[in-house]
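Make up an example, fold above all:
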Amino acid sequence: MRGYNGDMAGNSVKQEREKLGLTQRQLSAAADVPVSSLQKIERHAFSPNIDHALGVAEALGQPVERIFFRDRSRIRLKKPTLEVSDASQIPARAPA
């Protein structure tokens, strides 16, 4: 799930889970997060809600900010928009 501006949370869930020797099913149960959601989180295809993020971090024994972070490399750039409050500010087109 992407935020309103295309931001995606990065995470180290898979690496931390593997360090502890946990399966996805075990972490899912400990964090009270559906396995399908955990799989999406690990693939970076889903940004968890705060409850899931806190549950996963707690189950991994880490502060949430160590597990989840803002991944600026995945932010989509928006095209700049021209805001014109007065039509007289729009330059006239040259005749063809």
Helices lie at 13-19, 24-31, 35-42, 50-60, 64-67. The beta strands are 9-11, 68-70. Confidence is low (pLDDT under 50) at residues 1-6. The radius of gyration is 21 Å.
